[in-house]
Amino acid sequence: MINDLLIQNIEKNIQLSKTDSEQLCGYFKQKVISKKEFLLTQGSICKFEGFVLEGCFRVFIIDNKGNENILYFAIKDWWLMDIDSFMNQKPSQLNIQALEDSKVLLINRKDKSTLYNSIPAAEKLFRIMSQKAIVAWQRRLIRNHCQTAKERYYHFIDTYPQIVSKLTDKQIASYLGITHEFLSKIKKP
């Protein structure tokens, strides 16, 4: 069942009754995304919070010089969205693109608000998930400021081996904030 993965993810954070779990899952709609298709484009408003059932996405910006900067990847059992655009209903600075054929579960703002009212524990769930996301971002900022590019590369491949095989060296370099050429030098034995 498609909701099993979502329920397992939720249960990592809080315990819900079977009825509440099923009701919560009912607020999400499944969407199939083809490889290279965009789920969100820079300038549009993010109308969803998403949970990845299958596939891989990259979340990135294009800077003023036309360079792509990858903020994060999202694979099976991960969440994705532009929190600023979603919360504030302002144009997104981000792009979200499928790197392979993918499936996601999406919830919109109205349904998320209704969910909070119908299942009070859902608010606790999303608070805990937000806190975990902030911790992950903080750790990444610290690594970016305190580690060499080589250390960041090895941390990435050690921490996310399930992602590395899905990515090109150019994408990994963009995520690490280095050039493709520099990554090639790092990888040489």
TrEMBL record:
Please give the superkingdom of this protein's source. Answer: Bacteria
Residues making up the signal peptide according to the UniProt record: none
Q: Which residues form the Cyclic nucleotide-binding domain?
A: 6-110
Which Pfam families does UniProt cross-reference here?
Answer: cNMP_binding
Q: Which PROSITE patterns match?
A: CNMP_BINDING_3
Q: What is this protein called?
A: Crp/Fnr family transcriptional regulator
Organism expressing this protein natively: Aquimarina algiphila
